[in-house]
Amino acid sequence: MPRHPHPPRHPHPPHDLFEPMLDGVDPLSVDVFRAFKRSIGLNRHLMMAMLANEETHPAQAGCLMALSRADGISQSDLAAMLHVSRPTVTTMLQKMEAAGTVERRTDEADQRVTRLYLTPAGTELAERMRSVHARIISVTIGAMPEDDRRELLRLLEGLNARAVDMLHAAGDDR
User: Fold this and answer.
1) Within this chain, do residues 56 and 80 fall inside the same structural domain, yes or no?
2) How far apart are CA 17 and CA 22, in angstroms?
3) How far is residue 20's CA from residue 15's CA, in Å, rounded to a whole number?
4) In terms of Cα–Cα distance, which of 114, 129, 122, 123 is closest to 62?
5) What secondary structure does DSSP assign to 128-155, as a single string?
6) Which end of the chain is more exposed for a tag (fewer CB within 10 A), N or C?
7) Among 106, 102, 86, residue whose Cα is nearest residue 94
């Protein structure tokens, strides 16, 4: 009998393979959460695969695209826009600055503020990232029927609203 290099994957693995049953959480909600996490992971892997020939990481791609829309933004505002911490942005910007895609300049009016600008190489890379993002969206979400996309949007907006409410209640203003 031929042996496959990878065992077949179960479309819906049993709950106990990955997560124990959670007290107070119904199995359907666990399945939905697992599918949501899988979707995020698969789309992240797809992004990484499509960026394999580029000299950037998916997080940097998002940063480049944000800067292409808001050149001259402060580091704090960029962190807020990307929903990451300021130290995370600082580390990312150090790498991007070393790669020659961004430059930091002190704000002339307020010396405490550092402004971020794309270099010509950064502008070119941001345009390539925009094309990669467009392709990913087209082949995944864009391939779904319009009614399904509208329903998915409605559901995700509801999920996001509940998460934002919980973050606000916890004192996090993301």
Assistant:
1) yes
2) 13
3) 7
4) 129
5) HHHHHHHHHHHHTGGGS-HHHHHHHHHH
6) N
7) 102
Print the domain residue range for 138: 27-143
Residue 18: predicted pLDDT:
54
Reduce the DSSP state of residue 103 to 3 states and report it. strand
139 shares a domain with 160: no
Q: Answer yes or no: is pLDDT of 128 > 50.
A: yes
Query: Does residue 91 sit within a domain?
Result: yes
Residue with tokens 């509208």: 150
φ, ψ (nearest 5 deg) of residue 111: -60, -15
Kindly state the percentage of the chain with pLDDT values over 70. 87
Check: CB of residue 45 under 8 Å from CB of residue 58.
Answer: no
CA distance 98 to 96: 5
